[in-house]
Amino acid sequence: MKPKPPDALKSPHAARAPKAAPAPTDPSFPAWCRALPLAVAMATHGCASIVTKAEPFECSSGAVESMERLGWEIGQKFDFQLDERCPKYAPCVFKLGGPVTGWVPDDYNQPKAPPGTLFYGRIYVTEEKNGAPISLQAIYDHVELPGKGKVPVCIVSGPMRVSVFKDGTARTGNWSNGYTVTSWGPGEGGAY
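The structure corresponding to this sequence follows.
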């Protein structure tokens, strides 16, 4: 049996353990590093990866074709609830930039978007005052009619006034309407 070489003969190029960075609670942690997350959050209205403000957009040609196949005209108005998770006709709390699934209740009579129709999209801030949202709109990019698959569309809900804003959420009514569009930008309402 061969003896093992002593530890003192290890290569001088052996990997060294990296020095651990100080924890944010450590007094040696730089103060500007503690303030950076707050500054980023304030500049972006929350998490930097979540878009909460509506951006102008052009509808894709596929979505325009889908709306034509459905027999929908540009500017067509539909009545619906902004999100199926909320009570019908009642106020609802929405996470800004979060997903919403609009739905057409059983008592709505509109043949081109019958009861049970689902609209898939996100809810965005479209108007602010003193840094707080005062108006929201849902932008729906897909629809699913009863018994049919999901297809791309471009529908923008009417503006909804915010009654309460807290911690990245906003409270507003759940009943709305929306319009088919080919392009849209904040401040245009349901313009097409």
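DSSP finds two helices and twelve strands in the chain.
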